[in-house]
Amino acid sequence: MDIRVAAYAVVVDDHRILLAHWNSPTRPAWTMPGGGLGPGEDPMDAAVREVLEETGFHVELDGILGTDSQVIAEKDRFHGSGPIQALRIVYRAHVVGGELRNEEEGSTDEAAWFPVREVAALTRVGLVDTAMRMAGLIA
In this structure, are residues 127 and 133 in contact, taking their beta carbons and an 8 Å threshold? Predict the structure, then answer.
């Protein structure tokens, strides 16, 4: 079984949450800004790097919210063969600079702020709800 370790950030400002749009050709959906760690990369550095790449914002981490682990069956994988375990580390963060922009030629194609109360109506990956629960934004 493969394992993928990734780091994500919950960035909230004035009752809005920052999300990135995953541009999967078969299942596009909104997700938390973040992504996989590079070899030897610290998870906190990865979260900060990924938020910048996907949204244009420089962030500082405020602490870890939790971890989430999910085993994904081979039939549900986008790349590779066999099942994969996704280990996701979720941090709380706040913006310290930069400007909202979309990632070019990456795994996401759009970044946007959404009122927290409107997220339930979006097409989103399960990690969005998991991260929002960790942050106390939903029950």
Answer: no
Residue of 4, 2, 61, 78 lying closest to 37 (CA atoms): 4
pLDDT > 90 fraction of the chain, expressed in percent and rounded:
88
Sort strands 84-98 and 57-72 into parallel, antiparallel or unpaired: antiparallel
Domain boundary assignment for the chain: 2-134
Please write down the HEC assignment for all residues of the chain.
Answer: CEEEEEEEEEEEECCEEEEEEECCCCCCEEECCEEECCCCCCHHHHHHHHHHHHHCEEEEEEEEEEEEEEEECHHHCCCCCCCEEEEEEEEEEEEEEECCCCCCCCCEEEEEEEEHHHHHHCCECHHHHHHHHHCCCCC
pLDDT of residue 132: 98
Max Cα-Cα span within the chain = 42
Determine the Cα–Cα distance for residues 13 and 118; give it in Å rounded to an integer: 14
What does pTM read for this prediction?
0.94
CATH superfamily of 2-134: Nucleoside Triphosphate Pyrophosphohydrolase (3.90.79.10)
